[in-house]
Amino acid sequence: MSPRIVATASAVASLVLGGIGLVAPQAFSSAFGVSLDRTSEALARLACASYVGFGVLAWLSLGLTDAGAWRAVAGASAVAWGLGAAVTVISLASGLGTTQAWVIVAIQLVFAVAWSVVLARAASRREPAASPIA
User: Residue 94 contacts by C-beta under 8 Å, 6 or more apart in sequence?
Assistant: First the structure.
């Protein structure tokens, strides 16, 4: 799987899902059977802002040629998507949301695995360490 394909798909998914949740958190969460009070709406916007940020990171990584840079982007993205999936699973297991929310978990897991594959491939392409002064 090409790092650029993973980055493009991840950017699109992050920007779309994060953007919708950032602009309209009540509508987005109600699609999954979750109602938000003012505090949880603010926290949802914060989480969605992070997804938008990772979407921008993925989009800007498309021109990377350095394996070390790909390791950084892939590692951060794999952790972000994986932790997002874990938090969502814990929330669903505690009774929050409906079965439709498992679609979000599936998306998160697909990207966590895809970025992990990119990370593993980038890690196998070791480059000589650059001088910290260079």
Answer: none
